[in-house]
Amino acid sequence: MTDHIHRVRRGRYKTGTYYFQCMSCPFIATSLQMANHVVECWRCGQPFKMSRNDTRWAKPVCQQCRSGKALTPEGLVGSALEELLKEDK
Ligand SMILES: [Zn+2]
Ligand SMILES: [Zn+2]
Rounded to two decimals, what is the model's pTM? Predict the structure, then answer.
């Protein structure tokens, strides 16, 4: 059950600490622990290594997707990405 790349979504503890939780398994880690962790890109589905910087995304995407160089998957274009990267309020 654990031989997959985690696709993580950010959440926040009451203490204010951010954490990332996998969508398909019980994996959970704080944003500090997520730095240098390999996760699945929310946009292209490719694994990438998260940097400290990436932990500010609610739904992390890889470098290529962020710079717009990756191929656009069907059904997810332009403003959809913006939507994806928006903070959860
Ligand atoms: Zn997982
Ligand atoms: Zn990507």
Answer: 0.71
